[in-house]
Design a protein that fits this description.
By secondary structure, this protein is an all-alpha fold. The chain is built from nine helices and no strands.
């Protein structure tokens, strides 16, 4: 048996060797020819500044679209809403119920509801005049930023705003219009985070009391191997349903912005 295998292996090696030795040269790997590609900005053979400007404007629009999710999350009410909803789910210990997609979708629609007055002003004062050609792009950006700045100023703490004004090294602003967006936005974000964590702490208290009562009861009964979270979850759900938790949570969130 071993002799037969050795003969077959020797025959196979011999065939491969003869094939490589007598095969035509076309079967060998050929070097890859990389085509030369010439990339130009502007017209062919002559200067075309209008095409260059249009190309740069396209790049700017693509960059803005890439950063649009960051603008939605950090310059609107989205941050506070989604954090509070996440705290609510963690306090109830329901893990992935509701799913992340449901929480983010609900947070987006609540964000649109809260930001609707500001978005309406932006459309009326900046977008429509710019489409009609009544104002330039620079003026439209300035007018469009005003409603957002008013919303963020209303939700930003003076302490947080003073921190970034001092750290930025700009001259002491006399009015709100003197504060640029790169100073206002981070102050607004940390103010929103603090408010969201305060609301999350208040949400945890009733569910924490239920956990403590259930854990104490199980220990007094000698049921040390039974996780208290499993027993307390139905009581948490029952409490949340009896007090109409979603109505209270959403109403508290919306009232915190107005």
């Amino acid at each position: 048996m071993k002799t037969t295998l050795r003969k077959m292996l020797f025959t196979l090696i011999l065939i491969v060797f003869l094939t490589i030795l007598f095969c035509p040269a076309q079967l060998y790997a050929q070097p890859i020819q990389v085509p030369q590609v010439e990339f130009r900005l502007g017209g062919e053979g002559e200067e075309d500044p209008e095409s260059l400007v249009g190309f740069l404007q396209l790049l700017l629009i693509l960059a803005i679209l890439t950063l649009a999710p960051a603008f939605v999350m950090l310059m609107t009410s989205f941050t506070r809403i989604v954090i509070v909803l996440s705290f609510m789910r963690n306090a109830m210990a329901t893990q992935q119920i509701p799913p992340n997609q449901v929480l983010i979708g609900l947070a987006l629609f609540l964000t649109f509801f809260v930001m609707q007055p500001s978005l309406a002003r932006i459309n009326e004062e900046a977008v429509q005049p710019y489409i009609d050609g009544a104002i330039t792009q620079e003026v439209a950006l300035e007018l469009g930023a005003e409603p957002l700045k008013e919303f963020m100023f209303y939700q930003t703490r003076e302490k947080d705003l003073a921190l970034f004004v001092n750290m930025s090294g700009i001259d002491e602003p006399e009015t709100r219009e003197d504060i640029p967006l790169h100073v206002l936005v981070p102050a607004f974000v940390i103010s929103e985070l603090k408010t969201a964590f305060q609301m999350g702490f208040m949400l945890y208290i009733p569910f924490l009391i239920i956990d403590m009562v259930v854990a104490s009861t199980l220990m007094s009964m000698g049921m040390f191997m039974l996780p208290p979270v499993i027993v307390s979850m139905p009581f948490k759900l029952l409490l949340f349903i009896l007090v109409d938790g979603w109505h209270l949570l959403i109403s508290s969130l919306l009232e915190s912005f107005f």
